[in-house]
Amino acid sequence: MPRTSSEPLSEPSSEPFCARTEALRALRQCDPLAKADAVRALYASVLQGDAACSPSSPLDEPPGLPGRPERPELVEPRKLGRRSMQSPEGRAVLLHALAHIEFNAINLALDAVWRFGGMPAAFYTDWLKVAAEEAHHFSLLVARLAEFGHAYGDFPAHDGLWDMCERTRGDVLARMALVPRTLEARGLDASPPIRARLQQAGDHESAAILDVILRDEIGHVLIGNRWFRHLCEQGSLDPHSTYVQLADQYHAPKLRGPFNFEARRDAGFDEAELAALAGLEERPPAAE
Ligand SMILES: [Fe+2]
Ligand SMILES: [Fe+2]
User: Fold this and answer.
1) With contact defined as beta carbons under 8 Å apart, do 190 and 258 qualify?
2) Where are the domains of the chain?
3) What distance in angstroms lies between residue 12's CA and the mean position of ligand 1's atoms?
4) What burial class does residue 276 get, using C-beta atoms within 10 Å of its C-beta: 0-12 exposed, 13-18 middle, 19+ buried?
5) Spatial distance between the Cα atoms of 8 and 248, rounded to a whole number of angstroms
6) C-alpha of residue 13 to centroid of ligand 2, in Å
7) CA–CA distance, 115 with 172 (Å, rounded to integer)
8) What percent of the chain has pLDDT over 70?
9) CATH fold group of domain 17-282
10) Among 77-81, 161-165, 187-191, which range has the highest average pLDDT?
11) Measured in angstroms, how far is the CA atom of residue 231 from the centroid of ligand 2?
12) What's the whole-model pTM score?
């Protein structure tokens, strides 16, 4: 019998329910905090054996993905101003931008779970773990934002992350290459300078949240690397040239330094990939 949205996530039953169906339900949830709660409950259910993934069951895509609140207003990235980290309002704008990234990251991880059939069971568990950690990050940032007198939705935001999710909807290999290994990996590079500016402004509480996020994000990129290499191996593809080809085909953002080599090494990039990034850092940026 199909579940309805009013039913609790874990009902007494001897049969485990389908975690991919529940991931899609959570993806459709518009209320951000309800989404975050649903995701954490779903991952706990999988760990307890109350939910399981059915890799082969194809799920139909409902219209209007992802579920999200009416605010924040989504605008072009160039319309988002930068503010000084020294003022509380400037830090609130930053915390809001980070919360928006985490909200998108919850959706991206859930999308990997429901959309791509035929993967090993560990693929789904990995991405549900990521979704649960993104939900934790979102909650930490929203709680900190509240201490500045603001809530998620108070400032405009951009939609670049979900855009890449849309572009790679038909290809799990491209999704792994370009979402975790490219966009999330850029977060590893971006984190230390932002953290330093928060610390410099005396905002140790917000800096501590960035520490938690960076630690977990290394794990997310590692999971992306793991499944990217798994898929390359299965298709007898060279991971290095395949990445270059996919980045070109799907118009991935150009990589720019400075790179966080230590975090990227921990996240599973190999020495050849790190050397290629080091080469980009040494070259002056190309005119666009
Ligand atoms: Fe995150
Ligand atoms: Fe992440």
Assistant:
1) no
2) 17-282
3) 32
4) middle
5) 44
6) 32
7) 9
8) 93
9) Ferritin (1.20.1260)
10) 187-191
11) 20
12) 0.92
Residue 76: predicted pLDDT: 86
Tell how far the Cα of 121 is from the centroid of ligand 1, in angstroms: 22
Which ligand number lies closest to the CA of residue 134? 1
Alpha-helical regions (H) of the chain = 19-28, 32-48, 88-115, 121-147, 160-167, 172-178, 185-200, 204-234, 239-249, 261-266, 271-282
286 CA → ligand 1 middle, Å? 30
Terminal C-alpha separation, the chain: 55
Q: What distance in Å separates the CA atoms of residue 79 and residue 58, rounded to the nearest whole number? A: 39
| pLDDT confidence of residue 79 | 80
- Cβ-contact 7, 45 below 8 angstroms: no
Position of tokens 């500045």? 148
CA distance 69 to 66: 10
Of 167, 68, 158, which Cα lies nearest the Cα of 115?
167
Question: Which ligand approaches the C-alpha of residue 224 most closely?
Answer: 2
pLDDT of residue 285: 55
